[in-house]
Amino acid sequence: MVNRTLGMANATVKNQPNVSNSVRVELQSEMSDAKEHRRRSTRLRHWDYSWAWWYSVTICTKNRACVLGEIVGEKVILSDAGRIVDGTWQWLSEQYPYVELDEYIVMPNHFHGVLIINEDTRRGGSRTAPTEEPHTKPLGRLIGAFKTVSTKKINIFRETPGTMFWQRNYYDHIIRNEADLTHIRTYISNNPLQWALDEENPDNI
């Protein structure tokens, strides 16, 4: 977890040629939706999700099944599947040199994380392809890789080949400033304390 400020990513995106007033308007709208805690797609039409920026994501297990662990007191005790998810999230920053990870947590039936996409100045979009031209995967493909790899590992462990583990979609939020980042970090770190009231808790559905 890098736990740093927004400065580097902000400076990069401000130089992106396609950042326009329409993007700013969409960002304001997206923030309004986020305040209402909606778990739906909020992809912005004019935003390139491969741009260097900070993003928060929420990913739920299929049918919100509590298979990743349990809350004991104020802590999350991860199951075997939960530990695989934790390790696979860390794998993203190992596989893709332009990815950094900030605050994150594995909850019983969902995952919250802050992911930073930096400028990829090295040859190759991952450390396994050093001969390719620089290429940054957009957020959706990074999350897709995380879900695919974690699902495969969990199915191997469980001997359940081909079983769907995650919900098809995920929620994302474009972090706008330091105050937004601080709020999201606090929300993530306090998630176990709020489990009884969490809208993802099956007891509250």
Give a written overview of the molecule.
The protein is built from five helices and six strands; from the N terminus they run H-H-E-E-E-H-E-E-H-E-H. The protein has helices spanning 7-13, 21-35, 80-95, 139-158, 178-189; strands at residues 53-60, 69-72, 75-78, 99-106, 110-117, 171-174. It has a four-stranded antiparallel sheet with strand order 4-5-1-6. Strands 2-3 form a two-stranded antiparallel ribbon. Strand 4 and strand 5 form a beta hairpin. Helix 3 (80-95) packs antiparallel against helix 4 (139-158). The protein is globular, with a radius of gyration of 17 Å.
Q: Whole-number average pLDDT?
A: 82
Count helical runs: 5
What fraction of the residues are assigned to beta strands by DSSP?
15-25%
Instruction: Write down the overall geometry.
Output: globular
Query: Which structural class do you get from the secondary structure elements?
Result: alpha+beta
Distance between the termini: 32 Å
Estimate the helix proportion, in percent.
25-40%
Q: State the low-pLDDT regions, or none.
A: 10-26, 29-39, 123-133
Instruction: Tell me about the largest β-sheet.
Output: 4 strands, antiparallel
Order of helices and strands: HHEEEHEEHEH
What is the spatial order of strands in the main beta sheet?
4-5-1-6
Please tell me how large the radius of gyration is.
17 Å
How many beta strands in the DSSP annotation?
6
